[in-house]
Amino acid sequence: MDKILVSACLMGHAVRYDGRSKPLAHPAIARWIEEGRMVTICPEMSAGMPVPRPQAEIEGGATGEDVLAGHARVVEISGGDVTEEFRKAAENALALATETGCRYALLIDGSPSCGSGFVYDGTFSGSRQAGNGVTAALLKQAGIAVYSDRDIEELVARLATGEAHSAV
Ligand code: SF4
């Protein structure tokens, strides 16, 4: 049965920068937990970042791919450079996905780590732009199918299709 790497804050863990969680209420979540599919990680905490921690964004309107390529930094609202922590966070998430055989990931959108539809533009003004966070970018580069929390219905459909085919 396919496993799903999932953002810890989506699973109700209070690991966000502001010390809160952002649980996703969807019937598929309870089912997937029961089926033992969910592999939970907070990439940023896995890299040693504390809770709470300063808000961080990818600078200069760049994306997670730019950070991985060494062309952009991740900076805190207080000015600290956390690029290396974010790269380590992404590596930890990919290592866990690989070890546990996750072909799918369900990550919360908008985060500079877990975002996959949009990220904030580095101005700390609430402005969004299309793009991946650092973890989502690395997982995608490794061939893992990443879905944002807003796209959970697509993941439900994808898993149903895949399992129908493998049952034939
Ligand atoms: Fe949630 Fe991902 Fe941020 Fe951790 S790194 S708090 S799992 S969005």
Low-confidence stretches: none
Helical fraction equals: 25-40%
Q: How many separate domains?
A: 1
- DSSP strand count: 8
The largest pleated sheet is described as: 4 strands, parallel
Question: Helix and strand succession?
Answer: EHEHEHEHEEEHEH
Strand content: 15-25%
* Net shape: globular
Mean pLDDT: 96
Chemical compounds bound to the protein: iron/sulfur cluster
Radius of gyration: 15 Å
Strand order of the largest sheet: 2-1-5-8
Count of separate DSSP helical elements:
6
* Straight-line distance between termini: 15 Å
- Output the structural class: alpha/beta
Brief description of this entry?
With 168 residues, the chain is α/β, with parallel strands linked by helices. It has helices at residues 27-34, 43-46, 64-68, 83-100, 134-141, 152-167, and strands spanning 3-7, 38-41, 56-58, 74-76, 102-107, 118-120, 128-130, 145-148. Bound molecules: iron/sulfur cluster (SF4).
Question: Could you explain the architecture of this structure?
Answer:
The structure is a single chain. With 168 residues, the chain is an alpha/beta fold. It has one domain. Helix content is 35%, strand content 18%. It is built from six helices and eight strands. A four-stranded parallel sheet has the order 2-1-5-8, with helices on both faces. It has a two-stranded antiparallel ribbon with strand order 3-4. It has a two-stranded antiparallel ribbon with strand order 6-7. α4 (83-100) crosses α5 (134-141). The mean pLDDT is 96. The structure holds iron/sulfur cluster.
